[in-house]
Design a protein that fits this description.
By secondary structure, the chain is of the alpha/beta class. The chain has a single domain, classed as 5-stranded Propeller (L-arginine/glycine Amidinotransferase, Chain A), CATH 3.75.10. 20% of the residues lie in helices and 25% in strands. It is built from six helices and 15 strands. It has helices at 10-19, 59-67, 107-110, 125-128, 142-150, 197-206, and strands spanning 2-6, 23-27, 45-48, 51-54, 72-75, 92-93, 97-100, 116-119, 129-133, 136-139, 154-157, 177-180, 184-187, 211-213, 226-227. Strands 2-1-15 form a three-stranded mixed beta sheet, with helices on one face. A three-stranded mixed beta sheet has the order 3-4-5, covered by helices on one side. The radius of gyration is 16 Å and the shape is globular.
Length: 228
């Protein structure tokens, strides 16, 4: 499998990702969204099974890569620089559950949703929830936590903040991490400055996973990574 990650984060992550043996397709900036978020993969690509929905501005750069790997690829029908127009593709799939805002999800994404639906009122659903396994997430969003627990998911609640995102007061835990091959949970940086560090590492270990820290920087939000 290959990870889709924003090109702007290549100088920070390329060496450590290669050392982990992870293949990466570096996505160009998505000019349709806020420049501070233009490198976020979770605003540019949504994947479910062998189908993908790709942001209009990124589509020409990746459509051949995806189709050559057997994906059916649609273009997003709407996207803009101001919330909620930027979050149409930011839907969180755990494998068993799909966490999404029905009011903001792109129609092309809604048409291909599968799994147990978990409706929330957070358009940045994928960024706000770190996936640990098919039924487990980590989040600082109270609404996502409540809906996920009601649906039968295992949730670790953490404090808001303590995650860097240039131009914003804070980023999100899902945007600063990713699960790959249902094995390790990778973090962009360390959790040393996060008050829930021990709880996060313990929760991941209790679900049979290992926490891997890709850099020595404090954890930072890149819009996650999309595995294809």
């Amino acid at each position: 499998m290959t990870l889709l990650i924003g090109e702007r984060y290549r100088p920070l992550l390329a060496q450590s990702l290669a050392a982990q043996g992870l293949a990466v397709f570096w996505l160009p900036d998505n000019a349709a969204v806020d420049p501070r978020l233009a490198g976020h993969a979770d605003l540019s690509v949504f994947v479910s099974g062998r189908r993908a929905v790709v942001a209009e501005r990124v589509y020409p750069y990746i459509v051949n890569f995806l189709t050559n790997r057997g994906y059916s690829v649609d273009r997003s029908s709407r996207q803009g620089p101001v919330y909620p127009d930027d979050v149409g593709l930011c839907v969180c799939r755990t494998g068993k559950y799909t966490i999404y805002d029905p009011e903001t999800a792109d129609p092309a994404v809604l048409a291909m949703l599968d799994g147990v639906p978990v409706a929330v009122r957070q358009g940045y659903a994928r960024c706000a929830a770190a996936v640990v396994d098919d039924h487990s997430i980590i989040t600082a969003d109270a609404g996502i936590s409540r809906a996920a627990k009601n649906a039968g998911m295992d949730v670790l609640d953490i404090d808001t903040g303590h995650i860097a995102l240039d131009g914003y007061d804070t980023g999100f835990i899902g945007g600063a991490s990713f699960l790959f091959n249902n094995n390790n949970v990778y973090f962009t940086g360390t959790l040393d400055e996060h008050p829930d560090k021990e709880n996060i590492i313990r929760f991941i270990a209790e679900h049979g996973k290992k926490s891997v820290f890709l850099t020595d920087r404090p954890i930072f939000d890149i819009g996650g990574a999309v595995a294809v």
